[in-house]
């Protein structure tokens, strides 16, 4: 009779951690004050979990920025350039997370990447040949001591050695396998320290084994765990997986000496089949991931109990668990005081999920039928608002609705003529800094302290100023700055029918940054123009082209909480038609370049290659094509993707049939460029020439070097110059300085190109 969570949100119900870390970075509070706030948040989480009846309090899941970075620092995997800054441990940690620039010293941040198929991001641990892996920290143990002072049943968690090695970057000769012995030795030292505490379970997270695994991967995994589990330990070890199933390695998992296995029965499509066919060892505990850790809907107890009943385990070796960490959901539905009760009754955030675990436990182990019936009533009453016109529009779509003509090469000629841009056109990704005054203006409008006209007047002033700034700085294709948007997805959700919104349902995206995903509740459609007035106003201020700026259907879908009663394909096609309406409206109003951001397209690519097309790209790519299929050949369609981890799906990206794409490249050392070349990528490209996730200002020389590297691989007439993502999170001073350097590096390159031409 046990219940389990894999992890809990840590930003605080009111984003206390965000405010505290940002104050610390500005020097407004010191380390002790920051630690006190963090301790308060941990305490509150533990208390909440204890009160809910959860079997074990979860520790080890807190982080000031990211758990994988914590692990790397715990194991001394800290590149020399950060150690050389001679900062204290916390500031060394933040330097890796955010980059560092002070008193003539300048170091870039570590690369930031998507955590599997989520909108959470981790920092990539970097190993070089001199990395000396060893146990070098003690926060994990300190937290355990603190929790054990107040709570009896405590578990802790740690990302496992295999996932660490799979996600790490190896910059020297030595590769993952070479580091494995040292990594295992360091984990053994962690075991030794944990032995000093009254720990119930150690949860070792190994989500990397839900990927397709090679024989070498399996061999490495077995080698690591045979060795590690030989270390004496007085706590039990649960090998925890999530985001998929473990079909490639289940046989090994049940042979190894784990006390428990955590399997995901929701995203793990084959998990049930695997345990059904192969059985589950009676001497191990199954942590059955049956309560969704990613969605925000009430759990259907009947369905979950039926699932639990199918598992080949007894009451003694079953733990009812979440499918993944609750890091990916907001804290508390009760904070949503303005949400209609008929919607609210269907929602479940982290606090409610704790209660659901308790209910499921009571139903499954103690036969509490009343709770089952009560829950069923909620599901009997659910009504998603239907729009038959939207449904018909989706049904009536023909293959030709997804195809733009003429072909891209012909459009390219027409567009080059129309825009007559210089070589290496410069642009930005869309947003400019959302400075305090911008946020305050929106906050005052929301609170009714200023009216719509006053709100709009402020934004118009901002647009005017930034258009002027871009003209003076020498940009070729301008943007309006996105000052009217709280978030690129939430804003569109707010302007489309079919979405509902929360006030406090924040979810961590990276570091101190959080998002408040809108909830897709009914059929989606565009009821009124969304960006037309803003874009036409911005265009009226300049003779240079101003990009119309939209978020694409796949990204709106992926960064919202989706409904589960219709398929993703159906939902995303509805959104695509709504955005198509907006695209055509922008074009009708004279906007000649339209950027449709698909920042999240790569994010939800299934983790297993066999599912890439059938489960995702076969509907995601057409959804994007549908959005722009009806524009004129001379209208230039841009798209943007955060993070360039799409080496393997380059043909699918090209098949989006956009005219220009911009993406992140600088943090991942431009490796994508080789792949573009290899795959004869046809879309014009703007590989980001500097990293906007860090406050660090890149020098003109640095950007010039990056452009040179790009031009060594890609033809000059295909290349655009831009930062790697929107600038909304940055301050103005650093933004303007960085962009000025970008323009001067481009001008320098143009001059060199024309000089070479003259010479030739
Ligand atoms: C591009 N990215 C995005 C992702 N996901 C999205 N949904 N959106 C994205 O843009 N994923 C990948 C990348 C990187 N991820 C992020 C995620 C989040 C941010 C970010 O800047 N977040 C802001 C919050 C943005 C927002 O919604 N702001 C609102 C509310 C602002 C607010 O806090 N208001 C205060 C009151 C303000 C006052 O009075 O001063 C309050 O509510 O208490 C808004 O602007 O209206 C963050 O701060 O975390 C960036 C990249
Ligand atoms: N147009 C958006 C894209 C971010 S991914 C922005 O500039 O913020
Ligand atoms: Zn981006």
What do you see in this structure?
48% of the residues are buried. The radius of gyration is 26 Å and the shape is globular. The chain is built from 28 helices and 23 strands. The chain is of the alpha/beta class and 760 residues long. 43% of the residues lie in helices and 13% in strands. It has an eight-stranded parallel beta sheet. Strands 19-20-21-22-23 form a five-stranded parallel beta sheet. The protein folds into two domains: 3-77 and 109-380, TIM Barrel; 429-759, TIM Barrel (Alpha-Beta Barrel), CATH 3.20.20.210. The mean pLDDT is 96. Bound molecules: the ligand CN1c2c(nc(N)[nH]c2=O)NC[C@@H]1CNc1ccc(C(=O)N[C@@H](CCC(=O)N[C@@H](CCC(=O)N[C@@H](CCC(=O)O)C(=O)O)C(=O)O)C(=O)O)cc1, 2-amino-4-mercapto-butyric acid (HCS) and zinc ion. L-homocysteine binds at residues 429-431, 482, 597. Its EC number is 2.1.1.14. 5-methyltetrahydropteroyltri-L-glutamate binds at residues 15-18, 114, 559, 603. Catalyzes the transfer of a methyl group from 5-methyltetrahydrofolate to homocysteine resulting in methionine formation. It is an enzyme of class 2 (transferase).
């Amino acid at each position: 009779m046990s219940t389990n969570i894999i992890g809990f949100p840590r930003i605080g119900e009111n984003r206390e951690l965000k405010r505290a870390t940002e104050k610390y970075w500005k020097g407004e509070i010191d380390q002790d004050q920051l630690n006190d706030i963090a301790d308060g948040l941990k305490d509150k989480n533990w208390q909440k979990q204890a009160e809910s009846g959860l079997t074990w309090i979860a520790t080890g899941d807190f982080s000031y920025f990211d758990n994988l970075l914590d692990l790397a620092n715990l194991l001394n995997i800290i590149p020399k350039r950060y150690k050389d800054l001679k900062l204290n441990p916390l500031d060394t940690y933040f330097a890796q997370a955010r980059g560092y620039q002070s008193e003539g010293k300048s170091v870039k941040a570590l690369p930031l990447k998507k955590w599997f198929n989520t909108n959470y991001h981790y920092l990539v641990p970097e190993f070089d040949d001199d990395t000396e892996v060893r146990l070098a920290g003690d926060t994990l143990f300190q937290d355990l001591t603190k929790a054990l002072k107040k709570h009896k049943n405590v578990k802790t968690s740690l990302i496992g050695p295999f996932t660490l090695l799979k996600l790490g970057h190896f910059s020297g000769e030595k590769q993952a396998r070479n580091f494995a012995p040292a990594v295992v030795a360091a984990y053994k030292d962690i075991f030794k320290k944990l032995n000093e505490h009254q720990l119930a379970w150690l949860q070792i997270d190994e989500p990397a084994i839900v990927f397709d695994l090679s024989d070498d991967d399996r061999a490495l995994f077995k080698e690591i765990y045979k060795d590690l589990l030989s270390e004496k330990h007085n706590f039990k070890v649960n090998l925890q997986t999530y985001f998929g199933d473990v079909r490639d390695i289940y046989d090994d998992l049940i042979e190894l000496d784990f006390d428990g296995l955590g399997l995901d029965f929701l995203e793990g499509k084959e998990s049930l089949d695997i345990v059904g066919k192969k059985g589950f060892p009676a001497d191990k505990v199954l942590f059955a991931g049956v309560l969704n850790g990613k969605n925000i809907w009430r759990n259907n107890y009947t369905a979950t109990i039926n699932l639990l009943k199918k598992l080949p385990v007894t009451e003694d070796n079953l733990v009812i668990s979440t499918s993944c960490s609750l890091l990916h959901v907001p804290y508390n539905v009760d904070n949503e005081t303005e949400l209609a009760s008929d919607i609210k009754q269907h929602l479940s955030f982290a606090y409610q999920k704790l209660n659901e675990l308790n209910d499921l436990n009571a139903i499954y182990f103690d036969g509490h039928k009343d709770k089952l019936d009560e829950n069923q009533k909620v599901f009997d009453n659910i009504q998603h608002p239907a729009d038959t016109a939207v449904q018909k529009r989706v049904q009536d779509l023909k293959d030709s609705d997804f195809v733009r003509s003429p072909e891209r090469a012909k459009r390219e000629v027409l567009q080059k003529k129309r825009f007559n841009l210089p070589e290496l056109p410069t642009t930005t990704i869309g947003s400019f800094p959302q400075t305090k005054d911008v946020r305050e203006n929106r906050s005052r409008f929301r609170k009714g302290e200023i009216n719509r006209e006053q709100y709009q007047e402020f934004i118009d002033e901002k647009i005017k100023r930034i258009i002027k700034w871009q003209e003076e700085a020498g940009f070729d294709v301008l943007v309006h700055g996105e000052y009217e948007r709280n978030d690129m997805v939430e804003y569109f959700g707010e302007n489309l029918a079919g979405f509902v919104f929360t006030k406090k349902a924040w979810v961590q995206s990276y570091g101190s940054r959080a998002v408040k995903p809108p909830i897709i509740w009914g059929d989606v459609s565009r009821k009124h123009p969304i960006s037309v007035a803003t874009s036409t106003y911005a265009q009226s201020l300049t003779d240079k082209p101003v990009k119309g700026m939209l978020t694409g259907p796949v990204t709106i879908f992926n960064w919202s909480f989706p409904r589960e009663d219709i398929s993703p394909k159906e939902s995303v096609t509805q959104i695509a038609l709504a955005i198509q309406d907006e695209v055509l409206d922008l074009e009708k109003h004279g906007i000649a370049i339209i950027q449709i951001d698909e920042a999240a397209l790569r994010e939800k690519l299934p983790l297993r290659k066999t599912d890439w097309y059938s489960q995702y790209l076969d509907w995601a790519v057409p959804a994007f094509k549908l959005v722009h299929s009806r524009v004129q050949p001379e209208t230039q369609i841009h798209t943007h993707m955060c993070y360039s981890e799409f080496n393997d799906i380059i043909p699918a990206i090209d098949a989006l049939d956009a005219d220009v794409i911009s993406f992140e490249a600088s943090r991942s050392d431009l490796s994508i460029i080789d792949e573009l070349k290899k795959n004869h990528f046809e879309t014009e490209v703007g590989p980001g020439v500097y990293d906007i996730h860090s406050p660090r200002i890149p020098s003109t020389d640095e950007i010039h070097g990056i452009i040179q590297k790009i031009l060594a691989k890609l033809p000059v007439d295909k290349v655009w110059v831009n930062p790697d993502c929107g600038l909304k999170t940055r301050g103005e001073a650093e933004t303007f300085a960085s962009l000025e350097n970008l323009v001067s590096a481009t001008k320098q390159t143009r001059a060199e190109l024309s000089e070479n031409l003259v010479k030739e």
